[in-house]
Amino acid sequence: MEEARSVVHNSGNLTGTLTISANEVLCAYRLPAVFQLFRSRFPEVRLIFRSVPNQQLKQTLFDGKADVVFILDEPVLSTGLTVEPLLEEHFGFFVAPDHHLSNYHAKA
């Protein structure tokens, strides 16, 4: 309710609190630049960030503990969530040259 009043009474500037959750990998490598850009565009929005294990991220939305989550996952289909894919992430698999899996070639 407080956030709604703040937005309505403000002179057009986005204000309030946004709680964001993501796993540690995204926290360290992907999100710092995103948060910095968001803060420069919306300086009056208070960002609260919580690092959460990947398997618990969706539940934080349902429990009201987060407003937005960033997740590394297969495409998510849900009637209870709004999902916006941001980018396709490619992963590498590395083994020593003499490891028995070094001759394995996965199909892309």
Topology:
Elements: H1 2-9, E1 16-22, H2 24-29, H3 31-41, E2 45-51, H4 57-62, E3 68-70
Parallel strand pairs: 1-2, 1-3
Short description:
This protein has 108 residues and is α/β, with parallel strands linked by helices. The chain contains 4 helices and 3 strands; from the N terminus they run αβααβαβ.
Tags for this model:
D-Maltodextrin-Binding Protein, domain 2, alpha/beta, 108 residues, single chain, three-stranded parallel β-sheet, 29% helix
Describe this structure in words.
- With 108 residues, this protein is α/β, with parallel strands linked by helices.
- It is 29% helix and 16% strand.
- The protein is built from four helices and three strands.
- It has helices at 2-9, 24-29, 31-41, 57-62; strands at residues 16-22, 45-51, 68-70.
- A three-stranded parallel sheet has the order 2-1-3.
- The protein starts with a helix and ends in a 38-residue tail after the last strand.
Helical segment count:
4
Q: Give me the secondary-structure category.
A: alpha/beta
Q: How would a textbook summarize the main sheet?
A: 3 strands, parallel
Could you tell me the mean pLDDT?
82
Second rung of CATH, namely the architecture of one domain: 3-Layer(aba) Sandwich
Identify the overall geometry: elongated
CATH class of one domain: Alpha Beta
Secondary-structure element string:
HEHHEHE
**Share in β-strands:** 15-25%
- Terminal residue distance: 48 Å
Tell me the CATH topology of one domain: D-Maltodextrin-Binding Protein, domain 2
The CATH homologous superfamily of one domain is termed Periplasmic binding protein-like II
Low-confidence stretches: none
Order of strands, widest sheet: 2-1-3
> Total strand count, please?
3
Q: Compute the gyration radius: what is it?
A: 19 Å
Estimated helix fraction: 25-40%
